[in-house]
Each structure stands twice: as C-alpha cells, then as structure tokens.
Design a protein that fits this description.
By secondary structure, the protein is mainly α. The chain has a two-stranded parallel ribbon with strand order 1-2. Helix 1 crosses helix 3.
C-alpha cells in the first residue's frame, strides 16, 4: 500500500523530530531516514518540500493591525481539499481572532500543498504547524483545539 505525503509528514514529526531531536536538522539525513523507513522517494521528496516551505514561515510577520475578519469564500479547489467541517473550523478560528486573515491564507496554502483531501484532524495539525512556525509558541495549541500537538520543538533546517 502506498503511503501519502501526510503519512510521511506524520512519521517525520512523530518519530524523527521528537523532543530529543537536534535543533539543527539536516534535510538529506531526514530524507534518507524516511526512505529507509520504506516511504516512496516521490512522497519523501514532496514531504521534504512541504517541510522546507513550512520552515520558511518563521520569516512571516503577520500584520499587527487587527482588522475585522474578512468574508472568506473557498474556491472549488480549496473546497475539494478542505471539506465543510474543515472550512467551518478555519472560519471559526478567524471569527474568534485566533487566526488573522493573513495567517489563515498561510494555513490554506500549506493545506493545499499536500494535494489531497484533508480530514479535520489533519487540518488541525496543519494549522498547528503553521502557527507554531510563525509564532514559535506551544501555548496557542489549545486555542486551536489541539491538546497535544504532534511536534512542539523548534527546528532549524540545514539544506
């Protein structure tokens, strides 16, 4: 059975990037470990790309000005990958001020980059990874509906 990119990422965060992981992580070493674990090279490559793009969010500065949330309509492609429950979850975070409009777009971008329909649990995980990489704080996880995020450390990616 072929695993998905999401499965590779879950494995990466759950098994390879545990709390004892080095703060500097070598991408080639991670990719080799994933291949040795039996994941397909195509899925490993896509997961590494997703992970690198996630780590780039550390430079993202959400606007400090608090604007009222905009109305967000999901287009056909977004609705395909983020179901009704996921859309309700994200829009609820926006309404409560947990996500800004700009940060919501980053979450949607990372969700769509997985190129497969996401259940609500996986969408919560993607949201947590984005928020954690932007703000670097684990405290925000409960507000996102995640009592125990899969990954709670900080990593510096070495390419």
């Amino acid at each position: 059975m072929r695993e998905s990119v999401i499965d590779v990422l879950f494995y990466l965060f759950d098994d390879l990037l545990d709390e004892d992981a080095s703060p500097q992580t070598d991408m080639k070493e991670m990719a080799d470990q994933l291949s040795e674990a039996g994941f397909a090279n195509e899925d490993v490559g896509r997961a590494m790309t997703w992970f690198m793009e996630l780590s780039e969010l550390k430079q993202f500065q959400p606007p400090q000005v608090s604007h009222p949330p905009l109305v967000r309509i999901f287009d056909e492609r977004e609705a395909h990958f983020i179901g009704i429950e996921g859309q309700d979850y994200l829009l609820g975070l926006l309404r409560r001020g947990i996500l800004s409009n700009a940060l919501l777009e980053k979450v949607i971008d990372r969700a769509l980059a997985l190129e497969e329909p996401l259940d609500e649990h996986t969408l919560r995980w993607v949201t947590a990874m984005v928020v954690l990489n932007v703000y670097g704080r684990v405290e925000d996880m409960r507000a996102l509906g995640l009592e125990d995020p899969a990954y709670t450390g900080q990593i510096e990616v070495i390419q």
